[in-house]
TrEMBL record:
It holds the Pfam family adh_short. It comes from the Eukaryota. The lineage of its organism: Eukaryota, Metazoa, Chordata, Craniata, Vertebrata. This is DHRS7 reductase. GO terms for molecular function: oxidoreductase activity. The keyword Oxidoreductase applies. Transmembrane segments: none annotated. Belongs to the short-chain dehydrogenases/reductases (SDR) family. PROSITE patterns: ADH_SHORT (PS00061). InterPro entries: NAD(P)-bd_dom_sf, Sc_DH/Rdtase_CS, SDR_fam, SDR_family_member_7. The gene is Dhrs7.
């Protein structure tokens, strides 16, 4: 659709709080009232984490699950009801390579993304009577965004002091383009990442013993970078 052909009625922006699950039904109904249908839901809300488990309050883990996991499946539930009535639709969820592997400083974030992977892979098996409803999981590696500035830390009141250099990460527009290609082609799962993260995904999938060995070595450097004020992801950059 050419941008020039869009009019005011083609765009609707609603404020949404994923943690306010009681508001999700009304938000879904507002979209349906405006457009008459929902073709695609892109679940893209969430926060990452930068803290060691031994230093982190448990309420941080509760907040991560509440936002990244429960908020996502709550919104999905209301939109899916509509898609089942139409017998058509696409549910695209931005998971992460952290939904495939484990990494230090992100145990809560990894847990929430593993939860999303398990949930949507299970949901897909419940929708076999609806072949035109696609469940699509997108697993990006490091992407240029403000995710680091907004990460959870060891307590809910603390923000990260230094977000580090983001230039080594995948440009945002490339990640978006590959996500759209994956969505258009109904890929069940897409790993969108540069190396070495992409290589680690393959190791984790097909040679986990090697992946655990490698992650122990890379993880030590990741923690050292974090403690010295360098972006933890820099330990994986080329």
């Amino acid at each position: 659709l050419e941008m020039s052909s869009l009019s005011e009625k083609d765009i609707l922006v609603l404020r949404l709080d994923l943690t306010d699950r009681s508001s999700h039904e009304a938000a879904t109904n507002s979209v349906l009232k405006h457009f008459g249908k929902i073709d695609v839901l892109v679940n893209n809300g969430g926060r990452s984490q930068r803290s060691l488990f031994v230093d982190t309050n448990l309420d941080v883990y509760s907040a991560i699950i509440e936002l990244n996991y429960l908020g996502t499946i709550s919104l999905t539930k209301h939109v899916l009801n509509h898609m089942i009535q139409r017998k058509k639709g696409k549910i695209v969820t931005v998971s992460s390579v952290m939904g495939i592997m484990g990494a230090p400083l992100a145990s809560g974030y990894c847990a929430s993304k593993h939860a999303l992977q398990g949930f949507f892979n299970s949901l897909r098996t419940e929708l076999t009577d609806y072949p035109e409803i696609s469940i699509i999981n997108i697993c990006p590696g490091p992407v240029q965004s403000k995710i680091i500035q907004n990460v959870f830390t060891e307590n809910l009141a603390k923000s990260i002091e230094n977000s580090g250099d983001q230039s080594h990460k995948m440009p945002t527009d490339r990640c978006v383009r590959l996500t759209l290609v994956s969505t258009a082609n109904d890929l069940k799962e897409a790993w969108i990442s540069d190396h070495p993260y992409l290589a680690v995904c393959y190791l984790w999938q097909y040679a986990p013993t090697w992946a655990w060995w490698l992650m122990n070595r890379m993880g030590k450097r990741r923690i050292q970078n974090f403690k010295s004020g360098v972006d933890a992801d820099a330990s994986y950059s080329r």
